[in-house]
Design goal:
65% of the residues lie in helices and 11% in strands. The chain is of the alpha+beta class. The longest helix has 30 residues, at 150-179.
């Protein structure tokens, strides 16, 4: 009797369309970051400089996501039998840590602006921020496809922070332009930093959880076990494990006690179907008969 029976689906989560979207987003982000740095420096706006800083780190995040997607697309080898999909998880972790550093920098600079207010060219800031908002919205739309991939989600959160930063820069520019009240600039910068902080902490949690082989948050392990055990011909499912192989590719292993070993082909199809319903593309099931299990337990 063969003790192990495997269903392996080595789907490649990286696609040419995904890479093209990341390349376009990278080029647009870095190009406009140069414009915002120049305008923010000339106009004296922290909100605009903060948004430019976001865009610079976003460019690095997008470049890292692109590199991780390319590495993850490489086929499995004798040294890396699961492939290199975990590079996407490391990219998500690095992006989350980078965003935390950006938020800390914005907070420190905002505090110094409260203590030493600086003149701001509100009209220039608002005008450049409007263009920046359009660019960021387009890039966010590009990356909105593929949010189940943790790597792409990390890049998307960076860009989402830029969208919020552009809105803050527009509001700050308009208020300063119409009223001359400069504290609005660091105030809005801190507000946006807080919103980005919440998203970054969630991404950091998800990346660390995946790297530690945690069960994906979208999967209830107990419920999945009950669904697998309900497949006709199955007596019990035990030693059930689910973990992430890459940004959006999941793996599963389980031992399955059967009523009759002859039913295994049909049972395996049912088990595969249940795993696929939960987005699990790489599943390994080991069949066990009642007599075989009893023999093992009693030596």
């Amino acid at each position: 009797m063969t003790a192990h029976n495997h269903n392996h689906s080595h789907g490649n989560t990286d696609t040419p369309d995904q890479r093209h979207r990341l390349i376009i987003a990278l080029l647009l982000t870095w190009a406009f970051a140069v414009v915002e740095v120049s305008a923010g420096w000339q106009g004296g706006s922290l909100a605009l400089l903060a948004d430019a800083g976001h865009m610079v780190t976003d460019g690095a995040a997008l470049g890292l996501a692109l590199l991780a997607a390319w590495v993850a697309a490489r086929p499995p080898s004798a040294r890396h039998s699961y492939g290199l999909g975990r590079s996407e998880l490391f990219a998500a972790l690095i992006n989350a840590l980078a965003m935390l550093a950006v938020v800390a920098g914005i907070g420190i600079e905002a505090w110094s602006r409260f203590e030493s207010p600086r003149p701001i060219d509100g009209e220039l800031v608002a005008g450049v921020a409007v263009v920046g908002l359009a660019v960021n919205l387009f890039v966010a739309w590009l990356l909105s496809h593929g949010q189940d991939n943790l790597n792409v989600r990390g890049a998307f959160l960076h860009v989402l922070g830029d969208v919020l930063g552009s809105v803050a820069a527009i509001a700050a520019g308009v208020v300063v332009w119409l009223t001359g009240w400069t504290p609005i600039d660091p105030l809005l910068s801190i507000l946006i930093g807080g919103l980005v902080l919440a998203s970054s902490l969630r991404l950091l949690r998800d990346a660390l959880h995946a790297l530690m082989d945690g069960v994906p948050f979208a999967i209830d392990l107990g419920e999945l076990g009950r669904e697998l055990a309900a497949v006709p011909g199955v007596i019990e499912v035990h030693d059930l494990h689910v973990w992430a192989l890459s940004g959006d590719r999941l793996a599963l292993t389980a031992h399955v006690r059967l009523k009759e070993l002859a039913d295994w082909p049909a049972v395996l199809n049912g088990l595969r179907h249940k795993a696929e319903e939960h987005g699990i593309g790489h599943a390994t099931f080991q069949p066990e008969t009642v007599s075989w299990t009893a023999l093992v337990r009693h030596g």
